[in-house]
Design goal:
mainly alpha
Length: 110
């Protein structure tokens, strides 16, 4: 289990899952797309949760959380761009990105 947890391929796949999950969720705001995107997003976040839980270093945990926040913001903004910058997608991506950037600022104070 530990080899799989610390494998670079697993981390890259989980990062891609976070990106693709947000992209799908924001690209088309129908129930099916949002559900599918959030399922991929949450499964990928589960990997990062397990990885962070196994770390002793607060600095390592912060860097992983910042990376996930950045990938999530990029995924939501890419979904908006692919949807043709519709108002609902733009507002959704803005809300997601704003909330995550606030979370990043709060994490820095810990």
């Amino acid at each position: 289990m530990s080899k799989l947890l610390y494998s670079r391929k697993t981390a890259y796949l989980a990062g891609a899952g976070v990106f693709i999950g947000m992209l799908i969720s924001v690209y088309n705001l129908t129930l099916q797309y949002v559900t599918a995107g959030l399922a991929v997003f949450l499964i990928s976040l589960l990997y990062f949760y397990i990885y962070i839980k196994s770390q002793d270093s607060l600095r390592e945990c912060k860097s992983v959380i910042h990376m996930v926040i950045l990938i999530t913001c990029l995924g939501s903004l890419s979904g908006t761009a692919l949807s043709g910058f519709t108002l609902t997608s733009a507002l959704t991506a803005t809300g997601i990105s704003s909330a995550l950037l606030i979370l990043a600022a709060l994490i820095e104070k810990v």
